[in-house]
Structure formats: C-alpha cells, structure tokens
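Protein 1 of 2
SEQ + STRUCT:
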Amino acid sequence: MSTTLAAGTSLDFTLAQQLTVIALCALTAYISHMALAVFNDGVRPFMLDFIQGRTTRSATTAVSFGLSAGFIFGLGAPMALSTGVLNPWLVFLPTDILGMLAPKKWLAPILGAAWGAVVVFGLNGANNVAHDLPVDFLTAMQQMSTPILFLFSLFPVLAITKQFGRKWGGVAGVLELALVVMTMKLWPNMFAGALAMAVGVLMLIGLAVSKDVRQRRADRAAGVEEIVLEDDPMASLFSASAARLRKYLPLFMVLGAGVCVLAQMHIFGGGEATSFLIAKGQYSEAAQVDFYRVFGFIPLIATTALASGAYGIAGFTLVYPIGYLMPNPFLAAVVGAIVFAAEVLALSWIGRLLGKLPSVRDSSEHLRSAIGDTLQLAILFGSLMAANAMGGGLGILVVGGLYLLNEAMGRPVVKMAAAPAAVIVGGILLNVLYWLDLFTPVKG
C-alpha cells in the first residue's frame, strides 16, 4: 500500500466547503463563549470555575491560549499544509480561544467566522507560496505519513501491555504483526493497520470487561454490597451539569450536524493518521481509525463534561467516522444531529456506567496514553525523514537540533507539535541559506 501523497496537495475549497467551515467556526466560537463546550480536553476542567463565576473570562482565555497555541501552530497548521486536509487543532482550538476572548455574545460568532475565513482563504495562499520555494518543506513533510500510519497501529498493544502486563502485551503484539503482514499480502489496497487495530482494541475491551465481571462476582460472593451515596456532592454536581447541557440540546444538535457535514465533505480529518488517510481517499479506513480512538476518549469527555458543565466541541468524536461514510451532506447533518442528541441525553447514564466498570475506565486512560506515545515517536521520526528529504544531513541537524533545543528549554512548544514546527522553521532556514548561496537543495 502506498503511503506517499501526490506532490502539491491542495487547500483549494469549493464555495460550499468554504461556507461550511466559516459557519461552523462561527458556531463553535459562540458555543465556547457560552461555556457550553470546548475542544481542548485540558481546558474543560477549568470551565466550572468560569461557569460558577469564580474566575474571569480573561483568565480563562489565557488558560485556553496557553494550552492550545502550541497545537495550533506546531501541529494543526503543519498537518493541514502537508496533507491538504483540515484538522480539529486548526479549526476548533482557535475558536475555543476566540469564543472565550469575545466580551459580548454577538462578537463571538463574528470572530469565529473571521478565523474560518482565514483558514479557507489564507491557507491555500501559504500552501502555494511554500510549494514554489527552492526547498519545498511541505512536500517533504508528506514523509511523515508512513511512520504515523504504521506506528499508530501499535497503540492497542501498548495499552494492553500497560494495563494487563507483558504476557498479554506480547500476545497482542504478535497477533497485530501477523494481521498487518496478512493484510498487506491479501488486501494490498487496504490500510495495513486497520484489521490489526480492530482486533487490538476489541482484545483490550474484552480483557477489561472480563476483569470487571470477575471482580463484581468476587465482591458478591464475599458479601460486599455496592454502596450508593444519595447525598454525594459529585453526584449532585454531575446531575446539575447534565441538566445544564440538556437545556441547550437544540444548539448541540446543530453543532453535531455541522461537524458531521464537515467530515462528510472529506476536507477534514479528526487525527494525525486520519488526515493522511483522508488525503489519499481511504475514507473507510479513516473511519475505522477514528472509531477506535473513540474508546479512549468517551470516559474522559463524559467525566469532564459532567464535572465541569462544558461538553466537547466534537462530542465523543463519533461524528467523525460517521461523517466520512455518509453519502451526502444532508444525511450527514441529520445523523450528526441525532448522534449529538443521543450523546448529551446519555451523559448521566454513561457516568453511572463508568463508575461500575473501573477497568474499562482505566483502559481508556491507557488507550489515550498509548495513542500519545505512538504518535510522539511517529511524528518525531517522520519529521526527521522530512528533514532528510529536504536537506539531507544538514536538514536533520537543523530539525533535530531545534527539537532538542525545545526539550532543553523546558518545552515552550508542546512535545507533540515540536517536531513538525521544527520542520517548518528548518525549511525556512534552508531556503534562506539557499538564497545566500550556502546550500544546494536535495534533488528528487
């Protein structure tokens, strides 16, 4: 299976796509202003203090900017430019910030729409300029696709090893390797890691559910009764947060429709691996990848939403894979609205269920950690491959040096985004050296 994109990826959108992005950015900024939802999982826990008036809008905006800026400029923009596909870090993180920044309710959607216009009109110009440079670092960044796609496939193995030990991790690793080899041999046009990831995630969930069932049986046999605290303050908070979100159900349904339509247009990918799959037209494989990620984020999003009263801009992210597979935007809008309605209405039930399945809840944390570990390695390795493609040994020296410098300085740019940001800075530097007649671009 080829994992290389065609040179010259385009960010030239149709009018319908442009209007969709602009309208969705306006809507998400408005929802952020209302403190109903944010995309950044790290910002959501801070929203309760803002909702209850214990902190100011400007302070919350500062938190949102501090936690999001590195992902926007270091990961979102480079990924969009190198794949020709938009992503949530570029589309939704800025509207988190702009929505909170806006002092008036009417100003938030205007600022959000303005950012949407920057995305759909500005990126293509930057893309064209970069591709015309002597050192085309955007085409070089497409080298990242192979390590991201293949190493990402290992995240279930890492999660199983962390939660259930080396024996089960070894079994999962051997099984995934066999499935990847078999897929490449029998179905060469299929993403090689798709079947392996499916089996790995199912294995992890099966092990977790089995452990919880055995524990509950052991507790009943030992006469341990489940204690329910009716006056539990957390239960009261969860109930109030769920009621607050249900109050705005129609608005969330519009949001679900918009996100699902954006995914259906195939100009948007929900993750790093997904962006490359969407760029190559492998929509069913992209849907599989984002569907497996859902299991790692449902518990996090549900519990933080119930604790803070603010939901996720993409919900449980189920609308991503559903949108990729929808035949038209009208059906995508209807299904997206229904999915978001079901998610918001089910929040309280999901919170209670997670309380009874601690191993499943732990599995989601291990999945998120494993996804982060695999992507950090894949993005670093892919960035060094891009550096080699655009500048050989000098490129590796510059990009690797910038990455190491960022680590030594205490990571002013978040680790996940540091390597792609280093590729862009390194590419600009190599172009300057070329104009000074100090560097000859690598051929090919």
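Protein 2 of 2
SEQ + STRUCT:
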Amino acid sequence: MSTVELTKENFDQVVTDNDFILIDFWASWCGPCRQFAPVYEGAAERHPDLVFAKVDTEAQQELAAAFEIRSIPTLMIVRDNVAVFAQPGALPEAALEDVIGQARALDMDEVRKSIDEAQSGSAGAETASEA
C-alpha cells in the first residue's frame, strides 16, 4: 500500500477510520526526511495491514503546529485514537521495524487504563500535596 497524504481536511477521518496509523511529519527541503522516505516506504510495503501516512509540514503548518512538531522528520504512531509513539529523527530500518513490533504488541486496554490513571492521579496528587 502506498502512503496516504494527510491534510487538515482528511486527518480526523483517516485517524478515526483506522486503528493503527504511522505518521511521518516531513518537508521536501529536509535532508534527513528524504533519507528516511525509502525506509518508510519499505516498511509500508512490508506491513500492508497498517496505514502509513505523511504530513508535509510546509503545506500543513496548522497540523504540524497542532502536534507541536519542532523537528523533522518526526514519526508518530496512533492506535485506537491514542498517540502511542512520537519521536523526531530518521530511524534506520531495524529501529522502525522494532517500533512497529512494539506498537503492535501494546495492549490498548492497558494503555487506556494507564492514561486514565495518570489523568486522575495527577488531579489527586495536587489535592494530596496541598493537605
């Protein structure tokens, strides 16, 4: 499967309709982005069951700003509408495969439970420290 070009118009729909998406934030002038592109495309071919998407940070500045992208390339993985991985820098093929494997292995029920606990725990911690 080829990569999907994400824009502010289609981003929400693509993320909502797919339970596992890799997103490459890139720009055409970025040397490391150009080096990472064939690695990313190769992974897309090896994992046809996953959605590989790209965000051109020059054309989609609002989207890049919404995700606070400060360095490119940045790889993000979204599972079940939860960002489970985000890291700037061009990954070598082996590292990308490792990250994909780790993201596949996540128990999303546990991830959501951890998020809920962290959100309720931080509110409780503020109350406890005031006492």
